[in-house]
């Protein structure tokens, strides 16, 4: 195994004062869209005696991993991202060869003791409709041509789109090995945007839900009708380009133009209230 990767995975084990018993790893990271080598992560964590939960929220409808082969203790993925289902539809898998008696839902019901399927299937009075729609989401994927065809369309558009943005903006996508690129999402550095790129209090870590990035995300939506996640990666502002079968190059061009408009200082006016308006 690559030494750097092993060092990164082992770091929390060597730094933690108490024994580390649970390790949670994303399969595809959310703000940065990086595919993690989860099988290798699981291997190292198990060697340290830790239980591993793989958060694969972005995997169903995008990748088709061999979950048994990854061998985590738990593996969960959302169906409301790339399987076109309503929110709260998700799958959770428990490794049959690694029994953990404590594994049960936080919200319980009268079905709590009827086995895991029933215990998780009936959580309080939660609406069943998102679960029922799972079959429709899968049926829809097959109707439009199947997962391979969607993979092909999305990854081709993403590659073309990101290359276009790099050329237009004179910036670069996140540099990771090819095997770690997600098929549907990629983050690209933004060009200098006055009022945002020069903001002094940038966070030290990847940041999604607070700060100037969120303000810029809102501005792109409100003024240009472009919905895109804006994230800080270290000190750098980047956008996460996400494509699905309803997107075309026109959407990418619209994003490119909106950002270029924001780079032009004369297009911006900082009001007394500190809001930025585009004229
Ligand atoms: C890796 C990852 N975990 C968890 C979540 C949140 O999942 P949920 O919508 O089920 O709360 C997301 C959503 O973006 C995600 O990307």
Automatic annotation (TrEMBL):
Name this polypeptide is given: Aminotransferase class V domain-containing protein
PANTHER family referenced in this protein's UniProt entry, alphabetically: AMINOTRANSFERASE CLASS V DOMAIN-CONTAINING PROTEIN (PTHR43092:SF4), L-CYSTEINE DESULFHYDRASE (PTHR43092)
InterPro entries: Aminotrans_V_dom, PyrdxlP-dep_Trfase, PyrdxlP-dep_Trfase_major
Chain ranges of the Aminotransferase class V domain: 27-255
Natural source organism: Dreissena polymorpha (Zebra mussel)
Keywords carried by this UniProt record: Pyridoxal phosphate
């Amino acid at each position: 195994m690559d030494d750097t990767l092993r060092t990164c995975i082992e770091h929390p084990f060597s730094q933690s004062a108490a024994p580390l018993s649970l390790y949670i790893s994303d399969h595809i990271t959310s703000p940065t869209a990086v595919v993690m080598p989860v099988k290798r992560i699981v291997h190292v964590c198990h060697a340290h005696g830790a239980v591993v939960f793989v958060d694969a929220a972005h995997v169903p409808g995008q990748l088709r991993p061999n979950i048994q082969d990854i061998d985590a203790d738990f593996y969960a993925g959302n169906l409301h991202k790339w399987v076109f289902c309503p929110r709260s539809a998700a799958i959770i898998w428990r490794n049959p060869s690694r029994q953990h008696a404590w594994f049960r839902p936080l919200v319980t019901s009268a079905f709590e003791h009827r086995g895991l399927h029933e215990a998780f299937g009936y959580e309080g009075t939660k609406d069943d409709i998102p679960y029922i729609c799972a079959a429709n989401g899968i049926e829809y994927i097959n109707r439009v041509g199947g997962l391979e065809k969607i993979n092909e369309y999305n990854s081709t558009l993403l590659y073309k789109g990101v290359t276009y943005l790099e050329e237009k903006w004179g910036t670069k996508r996140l540099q990771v090995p090819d095997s770690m690129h997600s098929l549907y999402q990629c983050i690209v550095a933004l060009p200098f945007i006055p009022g945002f790129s020069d903001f002094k209090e940038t966070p030290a870590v990847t940041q999604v839900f607070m700060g100037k990035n969120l303000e810029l995300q809102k501005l792109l939506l409100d003024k240009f009708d472009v919905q895109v996640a804006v994230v800080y990666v270290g000190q750098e502002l980047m956008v996460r380009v996400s494509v699905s079968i309803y997107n075309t190059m026109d959407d990418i061009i619209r994003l490119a133009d909106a950002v270029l408009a924001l780079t032009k200082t004369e297009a911006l006016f900082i009001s007394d209230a500190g809001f930025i308006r585009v004229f």
